[in-house]
Amino acid sequence: MSVSELMDEKDMAGVLVSVPAEGLLHGAVWAEPLGHGWTHPWRFAKSQLKAIGSCRAWHPGLYRTMAACTAGITVEFETDSSSVVLEARVEPFPRGSREVLDEAAECAFAPDGPLDGFSCDVDGRHLPCVLPEENDDGVTRVEFALDDPNEAPESNLQRLPGMGRHHHVRVWLPCLTSCDLRHVVGDGNVIEPVAARDQLLVIGDSIAQGFVAGDPARNWPALLATQLDMDVLNQGIGGQVFLPGSTVGLADEASPAAVVVELGENYRYEPCQEMRISRDIRTSLFEVAEAWPEASTWTLTPLWHLDETHPTHRNSCFAAVPDLIRTAVAANPGMHLVEGSRLLQASPVLMADGYEHPNADGSATIAERLAYIMHALAEPAETRRARAIELLTDGPREAFPILECARRGIGEVLVAKKGVCVLEVPRHGTFVWGTSRKVLREALDVFASRDLVCVLGSAPVHDVRRDLGLTEDAPCNMVIYEKQESLDVDPSLDIRTLTPAYAELVASHYSHPEYLAPGELEDILARGLVLGGFEAGRLCAFIGEHPEGAIGMLEVFPEQRRRGWATALESAKINEQLDRGLVPWGEVWPDNQASIALQEKLGLTVYPEKGMHFMSRP
């Protein structure tokens, strides 16, 4: 007989073990007693519920119903039972959930089976999601058989209840609706609670709540917490945006070791003003940083979505949201920015509804990549930088740009391990070098820019082209001044450091303004990184440094060409970098034979273009 059947037999009650579910909860902030042994687990503090349902919220009614859902909450225990029953009262799906469920049910990429319910992990083995029917008294008995059929003593035989080994059981409650709990009942002798783990707090919208992965244990916050060996406190709310005050009071109830913030996507659907949204994002992230200063905090820019199904409102400021998030994160030292576009490929196949909400495969991808990022960046940036320098100092010359950037403190070393190094220069792109294809592909998936990647060495070119869709391949010669001696510069020439006052003049004569991000020219001028040549007091030529430190931007005005200005300015720049303790280097396109000839004349080593590829989108 099943445990559920035994529960209905009066004479069999003594053979069962029963404990209140309230004492077995993980991922809940508090439990509300409802009488007669029933309790409702809440994943929000009482003070938060007031803010979520206040007039300041965009959709307080929707948020209140979503907040009652039991996403991320588990009932976890050790037992010698062979089968267990969880007594629950499951509420109907709220309207906000039902609309998405109905939409997902029509999508070709929706999960098979129920789109929400109860699922169970037993000794690391996952049991499928179920949504049992209610009994006549309105109680749902969720029963799971715990013994592994593959470990039966003999074919078609099972151990007697209470005679087998203890099982570690973790029952996941529904994500998209709420439920009350009463008892956990088993056919063994003991049901014992499991100690709480470190906590992962996830603050987000429906994508975090678990719409519509098809299994409460298979949405990305649950998978991420499992990979990190943490309990998840899932505070995803369908339809939510950055709401100041919505985390106030939670710090008195929860002390997470890590925090992930995933918000912003819902600005697509309504008119919104950039000024207000900017204020809300800044305030919300400041409140998170202030509440948990010791926690590692990771804030995501919006993930990929398909705009065709539900187009962005024409009066929405959603296009500005990623930059608003980046700016707000930068204002909170220690808070990490994660580019959401790097967590999931741009593919409807990974969406349960085809356009926005990840299915189980999409959720697994997000969790794997986010866990990789959190592990990689958990140690201090200076530690990663020092390791890159150690790995590459006697390494292949093709990896020199990463080594020199690390030495100069330019950009951030994201990955530095045997076989792969990745360095990102803000607003410029990602430099990657590697010999281990597997390790390199993992790093590329989560860290490589989707706009511009500089591949050092020829090995990873194919992977970058295939995995990132960067099909434009521009090989480039790397040139390095590998000597210690300064170069001769005619002392009669008027060479000066240019100031930001020359920005407009320099921009008007630069042949490749597309290489400069907005504000970049003004920045390098302010830092004194551009030298200018003057004739009769008027600027006639200049040379500077690219964001990665490479010497470049060499321009001689037409009327002053063939007067030695290119040689003089590059020599002066090389000398200046030598004085700063740097190794001068540059990037030259193979078809620029005049520049290659100049590099050779000045004594720089010109490396073959096969060792450096700038890869981008068409």
Question: Any chance you could write out the topology, listing elements then pairs?
Answer:
Layout: H1 3-7, E1 17-20, E2 25-26, E3 30-35, E4 38-42, H2 46-52, H3 60-67, E5 74-79, E6 83-90, H4 95-105, E7 118-122, E8 125-130, E9 140-145, E10 167-172, E11 179-186, E12 191-193, E13 199-204, H5 206-209, H6 220-228, E14 231-236, E15 258-262, H7 274-291, E16 296-300, H8 321-330, E17 335-338, H9 360-376, H10 381-392, H11 400-408, E18 412-417, E19 420-425, E20 429-434, H12 437-447, E21 452-456, H13 461-468, E22 472-475, E23 477-480, E24 494-497, H14 503-509, H15 520-526, E25 531-535, E26 538-545, E27 551-556, H16 565-579, E28 585-588, H17 593-602, E29 605-606, E30 612-616
Parallel strand pairs: 13-14, 13-15, 15-16, 16-17, 20-21
Antiparallel strand pairs: 1-11, 2-5, 3-4, 5-10, 5-12, 6-9, 6-11, 7-8, 7-10, 18-19, 19-20, 21-30, 22-30, 23-28, 23-29, 24-25, 25-26, 26-27
Helix pairs in contact: 6-9, 7-8, 9-12, 10-11, 12-13
Please outline what is shown here.
With 618 residues, the chain is of the alpha+beta class. 27% of the residues lie in helices and 25% in strands.
Plain-language structure description:
By secondary structure, the chain is α+β, with helices and mostly antiparallel strands. The protein contains 17 helices and 30 strands. The strands form 7 sheets. Strands 2, 5, 7, 8, 10 and 12 form a 6-stranded antiparallel beta sheet that branches. Strand 3 and strand 4 (38-42) form a beta hairpin. Helix 7 (274-291) packs parallel to helix 8. The model has no long low-confidence stretch (mean pLDDT 91).
